[in-house]
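B., you asked whether I could sanity-check this one before it goes into the benchmark set. Here's the sequence:
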Amino acid sequence: MKQSHDRLTLKGVGKSYPLATGPLRVLEGVDLEVEPGEFIALVGRSGSGKSTLLRLVGGLEEAGEGEIRLGERLIRGPGIERGMVFQEPRLFPWMTARQNVAFGLKEGTAGPQAGRTVEQYLQLVGLEAFGDLYPHQLSGGMQQRAAMARALVSHPQVLLLDEPFGALDALTRIQMQREILRIWGESKGTLILVTHDIDEAVFLGDRVAVLSDHPGTLREVIPIPLGRPRDRSSAEFGRIRTEIFNQFFGESQG
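And here's what the prediction gave me:
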């Protein structure tokens, strides 16, 4: 499943929305380079533009300023080289888990190869025994796994995760955090995760990108020099978590 990937580059990215009272500035001057195969966690307060930035990378919206490139290609719209998973699984309720995953296949993929690919990704996310079940028959965590398989089945270079574990209970969330690391280890794609959870960001990311309040600017990018699996109770883990926490509540904000 491993493949060559390109660097993701954001230069001077800005975004505003028109309102009756004037333009609402959401993002301003965001510069970020994401190396191939890197896991970036993006944190910030509500309204800081995290999800907007993710949608811009996904091509679901256009940046008003600056540019976003994957390798040499300018991102101007959606593409199969970028997969996206939302907080809600957004599975088609009339399709089985297997059919939902197959929906994500590249156009023109059919026949035995398509079937093998779908089964491969069901197995990757641990749903090989549940492919014939419909979304309402799956738990929240299993639905999110199916959504990840659908996003991964087209072999995207970049997987964008918009708070995918936010609606899960605490224990399922921890389980899914471990699962996404396992899946990432298998695919070795580039991952960008939006989260409000600082602990989750430190546990998962190679680096944590901190967005300031609106308009969202890149306040700091903090490397996480910890091996995996990570011990949430370790002193170094706690130090990094506190460093990020202080970006929002500490003296560094002043």
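One thing to flag: The first strand starts at residue 8 and ends at 17. Otherwise nothing jumped out at me.
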